[in-house]
Amino acid sequence: xxxxxxxxxxxxxxxxxxxxxxxxxxNGMQVHSAAGLLREANRVGVLDAADIHITGRLVRMSxxxxxxxEQLATALAVRAVRQGSTCLALADIAVPADENGxxxxxxxxxxxxxxxxxxxxxxxxxxxGALRPLVVMDSxxxxxxYLRKYFQQEQVIRTILAERSARRPDVDADAVRAAVDAAFAxxxxxxxxxxLAAAVxxxxxxxxxxxxxxxxxxxxxxxxxxxxxxxxxxxxHVAVCxxxxxxxxxxxxxxDGMRRAAASPDTDIPDTHTPTVHAVTVHGLLGWRPGSAxxxxxGNLLPHDVVVVxxxxxxxxxxxxxxxxAIRPDARLIFVGDPHQLASVEAGAxxxxxxxxxxxxxxxxxxxxxxxxxxxxxxxxxxxxxxxVALTRNYRNRGGIADIASAVNSGDADAVLELLASPxxxxxxxxxxxxxxxxxxxxxxxxxxxxxxxxxxxVDALDALDGHRxxxxxxxxxxxxxxxxxxxxxxxxxxxxxxxxxPDMIRWEPGTPILVTANDRQNKVFNGDxxxxxxxxxxxxxxxxxxxxxxxxxxxxxxxxxxxxxxxxWAYAMTIHRSQGSxxxxxxxxxPPADSPLLTRELLYTAITxxxxxxxxxxxxxxxxxxxxRRVHRASGLRSELHPYPDAPYER
Length: 652
Ligand SMILES: Nc1ncnc2c1ncn2[C@@H]1O[C@H](COP(=O)(O)OP(=O)(O)OP(=O)(O)O)[C@@H](O)[C@H]1O
Description:
Blueprint: H1 36-43, H2 49-62, H3 68-82, E1 88-89, H4 110-119, H5 121-124, E2 134-139, E3 144-147, H6 148-166, H7 173-183, H8 192-203, E4 206-210, H9 217-232, E5 238-242, H10 245-263, E6 279-281, H11 282-286, E7 306-309, H12 317-326, E8 332-337, H13 350-356, H14 366-373, H15 380-385, E9 388-390, H16 400-409, H17 413-421, E10 428-431, H18 436-455, H19 458-466, E11 468-472, H20 481-493, E12 513-516, E13 530-537, E14 543-549, E15 558-560, E16 568-570, E17 573-575, H21 576-579, E18 584-590, H22 601-608, E19 611-618, H23 621-629, E20 642-644
Parallel strand pairs: 4-8, 4-9, 5-6, 5-7, 7-8, 10-19, 11-17, 11-18, 18-19
Antiparallel strand pairs: 1-3, 2-3, 2-20, 12-13, 12-16, 13-14, 14-15
Bound molecules: adenosine-5'-triphosphate.
């Protein structure tokens, strides 16, 4: 007899936290007190209520007269931060187009805005006081307008990274080489780039290890830690952290699992090179609670010799600046992540900025020359001088997925379409929404889930769950999670013998896929975790239900009673944002229409690379092309040199 429960909390509602930084500029709010340009920008949906209210506060605090153009630029700078940028590029302000393709708002020219700002009280200070909440700087991308807080955070990042890269750890090149050889002795399949990354991390205070899913980043981190221990002549004090609780749990499980797998009697060579580490969140490491300053900061530095930051692409500029301030200048800092993925939901895309910024020009140095030149092509060599190594060999999937992901990254829509049409690519396809194969595969997935859930094997049920996932760009609407979940439930309800499922009357049943929507430390499940309901016998031999969650490919599943899970929703489909950090056997990616502002290269790349073996893209060639060609645009001053304007000082 199956036990039934109430529907999971939050089912059928949109979950907080999976919205990207760029969602809906309008926020549906008209501010009637706004006047002139601000009012018009609000009316046509360029500014939302919060942009106008924050601008109003800054203007009132200045106590001086602030001109209309200056106010508009300020509100656009507030909007830019809301959309994930750290500043407003005055020469590149995006304004939506009307149905005739004309911009809905005529903006003043860049020059007019710059002139107004440079003469105005928000930058040069008011007559009654020195409060200057804005900063304007010249850059390769033209003038950049900052809210002072974000400028200061960028300055912290710029200054500390420059100081750290101006010095090198005092290590002997031969000792590094010997340590790298020892760390990879049991890794006959190690790519030269993995070895190079380990050597670079040992020879620089800051290094950046990038690569797509399955390129062996975590594997390499384990070996880097071993190299550092060897050259230090003893255990180093290591901190391993990640921006979210879920990323921490996955990283921990992955490192523990690698250790256990390598230590198993089935393997020939025991692994002595995966140190035992306890991963924490960046907030936890810094002792940083919401609304207060971090406990560890300049003046009270973290004690660690080595700090590894995983999933750095999800790190906001604020978190990055706090982290850098807290790290000893003589501690090694290793950033790990995939810069092509969707960035933090807050302001900043720091990993992408670090990778994309102009190379400092410093060459790798003779110590690494032989390791480097065998592998890297011209433009990558100077990047190596900045400690950046990209892993390119995929240990999880090969073939079309990796090729198409790479064509997406290079923005080559024609190449993507050509690859899709090529008979050699049989693991990625583009289909129309009505293609019968979609329902066939989703039903096969739901059936496998249901059958495995009833047998009570957590591993089988999780294998079934991870076998396929439908991913959408939007949460709501017929193209979104809501519409597709409803559709999938309808399909499953028609399967003979399958319990009826619908968003209106759904029950906990074996095989039901569950998405956790908030961190739950007590049960060790995190926002974004997916689990599946399974039938099992409780301690008294009575049948009951539990929800099984997988931590990693190596570790035992976690099981939690449904009654103890508070914040969940159904996982028949999920947003691409939420799927970040997970991989599934096959993935069905639902593209919204070509004009959806969510449809971007980063979104498509993230979705495609969630698949280990097969990707079906549901959409049209036009929507695919739009996705490849539209980049998430996050303005930042970290990618180029900044120069102050002589009449617009930025120091307080
Ligand atoms: N040199 C290697 N030799 C053998 N196996 C390897 C090697 N490098 C990586 N692997 C294996 O490849 C798989 C993927 O590696 P890993 O988890 O380190 O990738 P990743 O880049 O961290 O992926 P993700 O970003 O998805 O976490 C793991 O099973 C790992 O053990």
